[in-house]
Amino acid sequence: MGMAALLASATVLGGCSLLPSASEDATSAADSATTPASAAAQEGAVSATQAPEVKTPAQELQEKVKASLTTLAAGAKSPNREQMMQAMVKAGAVQEKVEISVDITPTGLAVDATETATLVDKECVVGQVRAGSVAVTILPVLASGRCFVGDTH
């Protein structure tokens, strides 16, 4: 009992309370009312100060090639060379710079995947269609200045 009296007197004398005062309630309510708005304002400030991501020409073409090859693959699970060329040109590649893999093996069988590439600055945008699935990536140019090994284009 003595300890409780001591604690109570210390609280009263020290001006401390275990319960919030009316002014603390008002401050707390004001903080909680402005917190979402403050957070949104801070978020807007961060977004406004962040510069938009600048893409390289190869990255821009990569997106277009992916979209074009995806459209092609939806209709042709194993497209031929001419279809791949058309898709690359439609995406914005320069026809003279497009390289395309073979679409038929030396024994006359269909290949598992058809690949295409084009040189953009000092990078190669390489696309592949395999059984209706599309993959597009950016790779470095070979020492020959080409994207593919060999003379197929």
Outline the structure in words.
This protein has 4 helices and 4 strands, in the order ααααββββ. Helix 3 crosses helix 4. The relative contact order is 0.11. A hairpin with a 2-residue loop joins strand 3 and strand 4. The protein starts with a helix and ends in a 13-residue tail after the last strand. The chain is an alpha+beta fold and 153 residues long. The protein has a 4-stranded antiparallel beta sheet, with helices on one face.
Layout: helices, strands, pairs:
Layout: H1 2-14, H2 22-49, H3 57-75, H4 81-91, E1 98-100, E2 113-120, E3 123-130, E4 133-140
Antiparallel strand pairs: 1-2, 2-3, 3-4
Share of residues in helices: 40-55%
Q: Provide the succession of SSEs.
A: HHHHEEEE
Share of residues in strands? 15-25%
Biggest beta-sheet profile: 4 strands, antiparallel
Termini gap? 96 Å
Strand order of the largest sheet: 1-2-3-4
Mean pLDDT: 78
Low-confidence stretches: 1-24
